[in-house]
Amino acid sequence: MRLTATSTLVATIIAAISLTSSAHAEEFWSEQDVPLVPQTFKITNLLRTLDLSKPIIREITSAAVQNTHADQDQTDYYFPVDQAYSDNLAFITAENRKTKEPLEVTKDEEFYDAQFQYYKIKLATPLPPGEKVQITVRTSLTNLIHAFPTHVGQAEKQKFVYFGNPFALTAYPATKQKTTVITPNNVLEVHEHPEEVDLVVKNNQVILGPYNDVNSLEHGIFEVQYELTGAVPHVRRLRREIEVSQWGNNLAVEEHYNFVNRGAELKGQFSRIDFQRNPMGIRDGNGALGFQTKLPKLARDIYYRDEIGNISTSAIAHQPDYIQLMLKPRFPLFGGWNTTWYIGYNTPLDGYLRKIAGTDKHILKVPAISPMPDTTYEDVEIRVVLPEGAKNVKAVLPYEVDEIEYSTTKTYMDSAGRSTVTILASNLIEDHAQDLLIEYEFSQTSYLTKPLAAATMLMAIYATSIVFSHLDFKIGGSTIKK
């Protein structure tokens, strides 16, 4: 294994920046036992692509898998993920490479391993002995790269370091495998890699392998430093509030953001003069002038505010299927800088709500988040307030979340309160911008709840005013004029 003085310095600084990364490396590169999952497959060829061109790491593993069992069809293929990286795994999907048919992926609870979390991939059809199938697994990982140097100047370009496994981690032995690493540009430097096969650097790609006869759970050390321009957007906390009004046929949405740029921190002081001279030069560094997000096509009453008030530097662009909202903060956001804001809008409810014919059941279908490109979301709270009178509420989600809470919210003109669903999730990315379903029952008589409450309150006000109008609140007796 090649180890230069530069790589040693990089590794030392990274360890000082993040103790977690050091723990990852120490745990990940330790000696491993034989996989706990049944050894019923052999990988005849594997191609792995590691995309480092964005802050979110995308890994694609395509494997030609053969059933090696003597006389039994196989339906379950296991994909391992290092336990030290389990909190970094944001999204995982699998498909048949030839047919593009999605395959069911579930976190396996049967084969527990202190060092690996196995994901069970259900094959579309049982695989007979000796037959092959091609499986593609896509994973998205967050918070695995670190800025080095940790501080850069206002117009200076930033570099990041990735430290990981040069081999594709598999639960089965592989006859042949190759890894291709893609970086944003050709400004890169490889510090460490296995010495068995010389690597090939071509433009913005690093090719590792091919490696022959690779053992299951094979590991090694690979380290690359590369240039990554632009901000590293991260939302520390997102609170998304959705209020349903069936009387007004309206869906009101408000989103509160706590945002930070996780790029290399700004060295020295910010110079407004340099920024005014070359405002576009910020794009070559790590600053951010603004962000974009998509809103529903029929969204109206759109607002963009912060703690001070309305931010007038925003703009919207109507597209055929959506509205593009361009958010521009009051100041450019360099590495380590943070800000808060909130946006809101109204949209017709009938585009999101469906009633099951012949029943009182309603199904609300709304997106979980309105994603910003290449953004990670640390903690997300989605709060859906249903109309008063809704009952038998159930949330159906396309992926696992941390917690689902059912409660009651009381607002103005309410009597018993409104059923509320609160969804708590963490480590989300734009792939999680899928529809969540809220099922509930809402009868025709429930439409009268609000008018009756309003009428009762008005009658109480009128009755109170009549009573008070007949009372004498004067001090002393009345005076009789002669």
Keywords, separated by commas or semicolons:
mainly beta, ten-stranded mixed β-sheet, endoplasmic reticulum, transmembrane helix, 10% helix, flat, disordered N terminus, single chain
Mean pLDDT: 87
Low-confidence stretches: 1-32
Strand order of the largest sheet: 3-6-5-4-7-2-1-11-14-13
* Rg for CA atoms: 29 Å
Helix amount: 10-25%
Number of strands: 30
The main pleated sheet reads as: 10 strands, mixed
Overall geometry comes to: flat
Supply the number of helical segments. Answer: 4
Instruction: Note the gap between the termini.
Output: 118 Å
Tell me the structural class: mainly beta
Strand content: over 45%
Describe this structure in words.
- This protein has about 475 residues and is mainly β.
- Helix content is about 10%, strand content about 45%.
- It is built from four helices and 30 strands.
- The protein has helices spanning about 5-15, 20-30, 270-275, 450-470; strands at about 40-50, 55-65, 75-80, 90-95, 100-105, 115-125, 130-140, 145, 150, 160-165, 175-180, 190, 200, 205-215, 220-225, 235-245, 250-260, 265, 290-295, 300-305, 315-320, 320-325, 340-350, 355, 360-365, 375-385, 390-395, 405-410, 420-430, 435-440.
- The strands form six sheets. It has a ten-stranded mixed beta sheet with strand order 3-6-5-4-7-2-1-11-14-13, with no helix packed on it.
- The longest helix has 21 residues, at about 450-470.
- Mean pLDDT is about 85; it is low at about 1-30.
